[in-house]
Amino acid sequence: MTRAITLHEVSKYYPKQPSPAVDRFSLDIAPGEFLVLLGPSGCGKSTVLRMIAGLEDITTGELLLDGEYSNDLAPSDRKMAMVFQNFALYPSMTSRENIGFPLRFEMPGEEHGPRVDETARILGIEEILHRYPGQLSGGERQRVAMGRAISRHPSVFLMDEPLSNLDAKLRAHLRAEIARLTHGMGVTTVYVTHDQAEAMSLGDRVAIMRSGVLQQISTPREAYHLPENVFVAAFVGTPRINLLQAMVIAPLTGGMWIDFGRQRLGLPEPLNYDHQMLRIQQGRRIIVGLRSEAVRIAQPSQAHAGEVVLSGIVEHIEYQGHESLVHLNTGSRPAVVPELEAPRPTGGPGSRSAARRAANGSNGIGKLAQKAARRIQASVMERDHAGGTGNGDAPPKPAYSPGQNSIPVTDRPLGPPETQTGDLVVRTGPDIRVRRGDRVPLLVDLAYLYVFDQDGNRICPAPVRQPRLE
Ligand SMILES: Nc1ncnc2c1ncn2[C@@H]1O[C@H](COP(=O)(O)OP(=O)(O)OP(=O)(O)O)[C@@H](O)[C@H]1O
């Protein structure tokens, strides 16, 4: 059995919190679909999951299960199984007892042995059924937790960062196992993660969230190739997309350039449709997005059609075995999406536990301290991003005045280009022969040029629905 899930304009306000944890969130999940909720810490992913499970009340909006209004349906009547990050196994029960535990309520009076054995076989854990959680490795514990969810034959799996307590190798292995299992069973799965690589490799579709608001819902491929805004562009993809401050220069006499300050990119004529649309931005500040594979180090004479020339000074080379990442300074000003610069807090001011503490009556001084800590963290992030030049000690200057749906993006304070650190990362073969300090020619493939407007919305490639020009 599997089921469709619809969230219609769902919002969640926690007590004493000024802004909603989830804000008018709408989503249709098809039966059997694997949907990943992706976003930075605190953006509301788990809250969405918990509202689907019935563990959290919906403040406004509707939850439909197979088309039926289900806001008030008891969690036990939803036929959903949840898998948590911390496994949530009972320490005093063996693996067999843990897996069979929910069946006591779902199949009272029936023999559970065959169901537990079948589940253990699917997961390859027959050998550890007699052991207690304390006698299992992290990967084995997570398999038992999966087993407890599977044995119930649920109609929906809800998984809240189920792999984040495991090491990288095991995560990759179990990720493949989860994909195989859930697709094989055809059960609708909603999977929460902040790890974009996990989301991209698992999801039929990915719903990307920021500050409680859905930013984009699409296939992983579309999220990477057609990000709707600068936040999605920056969140999806490794290494992170290069984001540069620029200006459109489009004199009436013809020609069009993207001006990075020290260098300009000339757009080839006749201008294609996407580039023509940039004319509206004449004289305005824009953000240019270039993925690391959109730029190559090569002589201008080697340019293919659609490639244009820039140059940069090599600052650092990251050898990765199968490839190298060359960090260059083109003299441009990088655009920074501040909330993406922070490492994932572990109990810091933005974390769930901190929020819960706040909700449980933290006083005004506590809140002020949290605010101050956040400010300090933001300014440290900005300084780190500026390469420790000291420029970041000043508060970051907002480049844009963010409206309700706009993406706050800051630019690094402009110093002499010589003192700025690398602003462009280029992916090359592992044996590239360049050295620190070399000035190298770059070819930019305009087929992979992204341009975002002042509010962070993508304008090139042009969005499918054009705003009406009047
Ligand atoms: N019980 C609660 N009371 C008050 N605020 C809460 C509560 N639970 C979550 N929040 C707040 O709601 C927002 C969304 O939290 P949520 O746990 O859904 O985010 P998340 O994206 O899952 O984060 P993480 O990846 O860190 O788990 C955060 O600002 C959090 O601090």
From TrEMBL:
Region (Disordered): 337-424
Origin: domain of life: Bacteria
Compositionally biased tracts (Low complexity): 351-362
Residue span(s) of domain ABC transporter: 5-236
Keywords on record: ATP-binding, Nucleotide-binding, Transport
InterPro entries: AAA+_ATPase (IPR003593), ABC_transporter-like_ATP-bd (IPR003439), ABC_transporter-like_CS (IPR017871), ABC_transpr_MalK/UgpC-like (IPR047641), Mo/tungstate-bd_C_term_dom (IPR008995), P-loop_NTPase (IPR027417), Transp-assoc_OB_typ2 (IPR013611)
Gene3D superfamilies tied to this protein: 2.40.50.100, P-loop containing nucleotide triphosphate hydrolases
Signal peptide: none
GO molecular function: ATP binding
PANTHER family listed in its UniProt record: MALTODEXTRIN IMPORT ATP-BINDING PROTEIN MSMX (PTHR43875), OSMOPROTECTIVE COMPOUNDS UPTAKE ATP-BINDING PROTEIN GGTA (PTHR43875:SF1)
Name the UniProt record assigns to this protein: ABC transporter ATP-binding protein
Species this chain originates from: Streptomyces polygonati
Lineage: Bacteria, Bacillati, Actinomycetota, Actinomycetes, Kitasatosporales
